[in-house]
Amino acid sequence: MVKRMTPMYDDAKEVAYLIDQTLLKPDAGHIAYEDFIQRNSNVGFHTIFVPPTYLGLMVKLLSKSKTLAGGVVGFPFGWETRREKLYQLNTMLSEGADEVDFVINISKLKSSDTVYLKDELKAIRQEALKFKNKFGEKVILKCIIECCLLEDAEKKMAVKLLTNERIDFVKTSTGTCEGGATTEDIKLLLEAGKGLIKVKASGGIRALADLKTMVEAGASRIGTSAGLEIVKEAKG
Q: What range defines the domain where residue 229 resides?
């Protein structure tokens, strides 16, 4: 069963540890990404996410940090073939990714192709089990389903598939489509998961009040590009 504890929102360390700090901007250059990683490496964030091109750099810069290195697969639409996704996943993990956020094949989900999705999710989990994170623990997998593109029945279908294949998290959004995390979606995903999967809220979370709303709705992790600002708010 998924266990949740209510954080102290005036404790900046607790707030930071809820956050996956993210920069996935196509117009940001090498210097911007290196600066981003260095500025965020010792804040206490749970994980930092950057594009695959900069994962190796991030793993190196986070080698002495407790913050984990996050890799993305199938981002942002999830429509790559299974072979392509597994290649991306293997590459991310071989380069040292500690956690992976991957996008479900949204088109197949909209088509109710549960056989295809089951096989893909099973293959992704089996590949991830071959690796450990930098602390010798299992690699955490978070599946992005892009809630704003789905009907409620499709969200529930996705959660059932994810729980059956023992994926660790269901994530609300990539942040690239209109519409981000909502409390309604978080509650729906948690109810559908029946305590067997955690929820990562992502998209439109830019302030401490937003984080608090999502956590109190049931999210266990927060994806945002505004982590520094949120932690600064928590420090008061």
A: 74-235
